[in-house]
């Protein structure tokens, strides 16, 4: 009965929302016509397609090919600029081309600013006032860049190295008394990535507070599942659960901030300068007046940025290394050369990371064929023209890294997994964009690179692995996007130690 009520309410909401879009769209068109304005708007679907277009995008994503949604419409409208309805909004898609990406990235703060769908804004109210306007966004980006600049994150390589070794000893090696073990990778690497984030961002040690980290991780998982859900905040919906979990996360992090602030301001001993300590220091410099809740929201943003794609990419890397033994062999060779240059128990450092060129090319090719963030969001802050079409101020914009990464114009035979694409000068500018670009370039990309390469250094030297043969009961798993790429069964593999 309750499920039926939710379904009926959702359909009613969608219907009313669609009618309101049509009403206001028709009023706007009538006003333009009466003024004699004949701007040519991008071709595309009407507001009646609010449901069908979103369903089509979700269907393509669950089939593992989100780019299909965009390619079909590029062909249908003979244009890579078109209008559609996604995530409860009428949007204009500008993307799939290097020129489109360049235009969006280079015009941020000029013609374009950042926008997020309603579901994300409901989960993170902080984003409404501090990301949705240029001044707030610039201030936020400046703080993030201070916390996540290469010089700062390079200091964390040793901690990542130690924690990764402990992770394999605790969670992978415990069953290695047998010749062959089947494990599920995805939940293990998500747990590991979150533990590192808690240690480096909040100073919470997994060895001492495992249960606390476990409960926090469950809340973060609920929030991530509601990112691009339908904007329906009713009891039992994904969005409602995500909003509640987000509030609990902020309460928990607020406790950590208060405790750490007392310690920092009293000049107490700290085992390492984690990001929370650095942020508190920054807030005291020049009397910036950064209040407690602002620090809480900043830390929530950093943690989400640090874990949203990490578990995804680590799992996908292991998936492709299982599928391509020749690539695994080359990664192993490179990592063994790095290890052979180290002394006994000597931790990895920045120079070691610099030697992992082939390994990083493999990771980049993984992020191309299964991009961690297949779509991005912008909004027109001024009227402008693009490719012969008029884009009015306030219009929501969507761009797609998935469409660019799988375009044969930039990557011949795009479905082929080929790390050699990144040798030499690599792809042309604005064609490989897993971290976005321009002022909104992901500030945590160097942090992500370090964590992924440290993980690879350990996993390939410890294990060989392959996938169990699929059967009628246990069918082969595939990559789906929900909204990030995931393995449908979490990547079950056989692991064996090197002899």
Tally of DSSP β-strands = 12
CATH C-level class of the largest domain: Mainly Alpha
- For this structure, the CATH topology of the largest domain is Cytochrome p450
Helices, by number, come to 20
The end-to-end distance, rounded to whole angstroms, is 58 Å
Question: In what order do the strands lie side by side in the largest sheet?
Answer: 1-2-8-5-3
Number of domains: 2
CATH 2nd-level architecture of the largest domain: Orthogonal Bundle
SS class = alpha+beta
Uncertain runs: 1-37
- Overall pLDDT level: 84
Query: How much strand?
Result: 5-15%
Structure description:
Its cofactor is heme. This is Cytochrome P450. The protein has 499 residues and is α+β, with helices and mostly antiparallel strands. It folds into two domains: 127 residues, 2-Layer Sandwich (Uridine Diphospho-n-acetylenolpyruvylglucosamine Reductase, domain 2); 322 residues, Cytochrome P450 (Cytochrome p450), CATH 1.10.630. 55% of the residues lie in helices and 10% in strands. The chain has 20 helices and twelve strands. Strands 1-2-8-5-3 form a five-stranded mixed β-sheet. The chain has a three-stranded antiparallel β-sheet with strand order 4-12-9. A hairpin with a 2-residue loop joins strand 6 and strand 7. Helix 9 crosses helix 20, helix 10 runs antiparallel to helix 15 and helix 12 crosses helix 13. The protein is globular. The N terminus is likely disordered.
